[in-house]
Protein backbone atom coordinates (compact mmCIF):
# COMPACT_ATOMS: atom_id res chain seq x y z
CA UNK A 1 0.00 0.00 0.00
CA UNK A 2 1.46 3.41 -0.94
CA UNK A 3 2.03 6.02 1.78
CA UNK A 4 -0.90 8.31 0.95
CA UNK A 5 -3.34 5.44 0.38
CA UNK A 6 -2.23 3.85 3.65
CA UNK A 7 -2.94 7.06 5.58
CA UNK A 8 -6.36 7.42 3.97
CA UNK A 9 -7.14 3.79 4.75
CA UNK A 10 -6.27 4.15 8.43
CA UNK A 11 -7.92 7.59 8.84
CA UNK A 12 -11.42 6.08 8.60
CA UNK A 13 -11.11 4.46 12.04
CA UNK A 14 -11.87 6.64 15.03
CA UNK A 15 -12.18 5.48 18.63
CA UNK A 16 -12.03 7.21 21.99
CA UNK A 17 -10.70 4.47 24.27
CA UNK A 18 -7.06 4.42 23.16
CA UNK A 19 -4.70 5.76 25.81
CA UNK A 20 -2.15 8.41 24.78
CA UNK A 21 1.20 8.57 26.62
CA UNK A 22 3.99 11.05 26.09
CA UNK A 23 7.49 9.61 26.17
CA UNK A 24 8.17 10.32 29.86
CA UNK A 25 4.80 8.84 30.85
CA UNK A 26 5.45 5.71 28.80
CA UNK A 27 8.94 5.30 30.30
CA UNK A 28 7.48 5.50 33.80
CA UNK A 29 4.68 3.10 32.86
CA UNK A 30 7.10 0.55 31.36
CA UNK A 31 9.40 0.79 34.39
CA UNK A 32 6.48 0.05 36.73
CA UNK A 33 4.70 -2.60 34.64
CA UNK A 34 4.93 -6.19 35.79
CA UNK A 35 4.30 -7.43 32.26
CA UNK A 36 5.90 -5.67 29.30
CA UNK A 37 3.40 -4.78 26.58
CA UNK A 38 4.13 -5.44 22.93
CA UNK A 39 6.03 -2.42 21.60
CA UNK A 40 4.78 -2.24 18.02
CA UNK A 41 6.86 0.04 15.81
CA UNK A 42 4.91 0.93 12.67
CA UNK A 43 7.61 2.99 10.96
CA UNK A 44 9.55 2.00 7.85
CA UNK A 45 12.61 -0.28 8.16
CA UNK A 46 15.01 2.58 7.38
CA UNK A 47 13.54 4.60 10.28
CA UNK A 48 13.74 1.61 12.62
CA UNK A 49 17.40 1.12 11.65
CA UNK A 50 18.23 4.67 12.80
CA UNK A 51 16.64 4.44 16.24
CA UNK A 52 14.29 2.14 18.10
CA UNK A 53 13.22 0.96 21.51
CA UNK A 54 15.16 -2.15 22.41
CA UNK A 55 12.27 -4.62 22.58
CA UNK A 56 10.18 -3.11 19.79
CA UNK A 57 8.79 -5.27 17.01
CA UNK A 58 8.84 -3.70 13.57
CA UNK A 59 5.61 -4.02 11.59
CA UNK A 60 5.34 -1.17 9.07
CA UNK A 61 1.95 0.50 8.89
CA UNK A 62 1.36 -0.58 5.29
CA UNK A 63 1.98 -4.24 6.17
CA UNK A 64 -0.31 -4.30 9.19
CA UNK A 65 -3.62 -5.29 7.58
CA UNK A 66 -2.03 -8.41 6.05
CA UNK A 67 -0.21 -9.40 9.26
CA UNK A 68 -2.70 -8.33 11.92
CA UNK A 69 -3.62 -11.95 12.67
CA UNK A 70 -0.10 -12.40 14.08
CA UNK A 71 -1.03 -10.09 16.98
CA UNK A 72 -2.90 -11.04 20.17
CA UNK A 73 -6.10 -8.99 20.52
CA UNK A 74 -5.96 -9.27 24.31
CA UNK A 75 -2.32 -8.21 24.73
CA UNK A 76 -1.49 -4.66 25.71
CA UNK A 77 0.11 -2.98 22.69
CA UNK A 78 2.07 0.27 22.59
CA UNK A 79 2.06 1.65 19.04
CA UNK A 80 5.12 3.67 18.06
CA UNK A 81 6.10 5.85 15.09
CA UNK A 82 8.23 8.95 14.49
CA UNK A 83 5.91 11.68 15.85
CA UNK A 84 2.79 9.85 17.07
CA UNK A 85 0.55 10.43 14.07
CA UNK A 86 0.89 7.13 12.21
CA UNK A 87 0.80 5.26 15.51
CA UNK A 88 -2.47 6.98 16.48
CA UNK A 89 -4.01 5.95 13.16
CA UNK A 90 -2.81 2.36 13.62
CA UNK A 91 -4.09 2.31 17.19
CA UNK A 92 -7.53 3.40 16.02
CA UNK A 93 -7.48 0.74 13.32
CA UNK A 94 -6.49 -1.95 15.84
CA UNK A 95 -9.25 -0.94 18.24
CA UNK A 96 -11.82 -0.93 15.43
CA UNK A 97 -10.56 -4.44 14.61
CA UNK A 98 -11.26 -5.72 18.12
CA UNK A 99 -7.99 -5.10 19.94
CA UNK A 100 -8.73 -4.19 23.55
CA UNK A 101 -5.72 -2.51 25.12
CA UNK A 102 -3.91 0.03 22.93
CA UNK A 103 -1.53 2.79 23.98
CA UNK A 104 -0.23 5.39 21.52
CA UNK A 105 3.20 6.92 22.09
CA UNK A 106 1.87 10.40 21.27
CA UNK A 107 5.31 12.03 21.06
CA UNK A 108 6.76 9.23 18.94
CA UNK A 109 10.40 8.32 18.79
CA UNK A 110 11.29 11.99 18.35
CA UNK A 111 9.78 12.65 21.78
CA UNK A 112 11.53 9.64 23.29
CA UNK A 113 14.88 10.92 22.01
CA UNK A 114 14.18 14.44 23.34
CA UNK A 115 12.62 13.50 26.70
CA UNK A 116 13.94 10.09 27.73
CA UNK A 117 17.11 9.10 25.87
CA UNK A 118 19.01 12.13 24.62
CA UNK A 119 21.79 9.86 23.29
CA UNK A 120 19.39 8.24 20.81
CA UNK A 121 19.99 8.98 17.13
CA UNK A 122 17.38 11.22 15.51
CA UNK A 123 16.29 11.95 11.95
Question: What's the structural blueprint in terms of helices and strands?
Answer:
Layout: H1 3-11, E1 19-21, H2 23-32, E2 38-41, H3 45-50, E3 57-58, H4 64-67, E4 77-80, H5 85-96, E5 102-105, H6 108-115
Parallel strand pairs: 1-5, 2-3, 2-4, 4-5
Structure description:
Helix content is 40%, strand content 14%. It has one domain: Oxidized Rhodanese, domain 1 (3-Layer(aba) Sandwich), CATH 3.40.250. It is globular and about 35 Å long. It has a five-stranded parallel sheet. The model has no long low-confidence stretch (mean pLDDT 91). The two termini are 23 Å apart. With 123 residues, it is α/β, with parallel strands linked by helices. The chain contains six helices and five strands.
Query: How does CATH name the architecture?
Result: 3-Layer(aba) Sandwich
Q: Tell me the CATH superfamily.
A: Rhodanese-like domain
* Gyration radius, rounded: 13 Å
Please describe the biggest sheet, giving its number of strands, its sense, and whether it closes into a barrel: 5 strands, parallel
Low-confidence stretches: none
Which topology does CATH recognise?
Answer: Oxidized Rhodanese, domain 1
- Write down how many β-strands occur, each being a DSSP E stretch of 2 or more residues: 5
Structural class call reads alpha/beta
Distance separating the two termini: 23 Å
Strand content: 5-15%
Class in CATH?
Alpha Beta
Q: Tell me roughly what share of residues is in helical segments.
A: 25-40%
Helix count, per DSSP? 6
Q: How are the strands of the largest sheet arranged?
A: 1-5-4-2-3
- The helix/strand order is HEHEHEHEHEH
Number of discrete domains: 1
| Shape verdict | globular
**Mean pLDDT reading:** 91
Amino acid sequence: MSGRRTLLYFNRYKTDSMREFEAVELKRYLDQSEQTPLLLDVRQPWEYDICRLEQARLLPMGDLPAKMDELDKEQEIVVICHHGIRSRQVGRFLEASGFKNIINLSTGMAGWAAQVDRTMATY
